[in-house]
Design brief:
Blueprint lengths: L14 E5 L17 H5 L2 H9 L4 E5 L7 E4 L3 E6 L2 E4 L11 H12 L3 E4 L4 H9 L3 E8 L3 E10 L2 E4 L7 H13 L14
Parallel strand pairs: 1-2, 1-8, 5-6
Antiparallel strand pairs: 2-3, 4-5, 4-7, 7-8, 8-9
Helix pairs in contact: 3-5
Length: 194
Amino acid sequence: MILLSPTGPYYSAPMRIYVEEHYTRAAPGGIGFAKAAGNYGSSLLATAIAKDKGYDQVLWTDAFEHKYVQEIGTMNVFFIIGNKVVTPDLEAGTILEGVTRDSAIETLKELGYTVEERPISIDEIISAHKAGELKEVFGTGTAATVSMIQELRYKDYTMKFDVHTWQAVPAVKKMLTDIREGRKADTRGWMFKV
């Protein structure tokens, strides 16, 4: 059975994200790579705790060390550090290989950014923030599309961002929206009639 229904954007305002270091959404050898109900059901408690603290979602860390970032509850995650875009790779099988993720990667490359798919630790992210090199943070997902992240919190360290000065995230969102809504030519064959 396939159900289709219209929906507005999940996150119309920039998000506040809590970095989860206790609970685990997915582990290697499981089905973290799949869009399966079990992957979301297991996230409900941690998400409820984060919401009680005033956050919109959690950024999951790896199951073993809780050191490497994975994905946000309903989105893949991207970090613009210096002049590079870094997103967690898919090697461990714990991150959804999202279509919107792939589209964002292609769009970022078209806009001239270097994109690295690799493990990235929360320590690297904090160091980049302290050095002033962490420029933009955003998530991508089917319903979330491209969503700005205005705040990341890990333990007692809070990273806040002025989303009004950003350039990459608005450009990616605009390009993908323009292709989807027919204002920009689809040169990759992403759009097709069903």
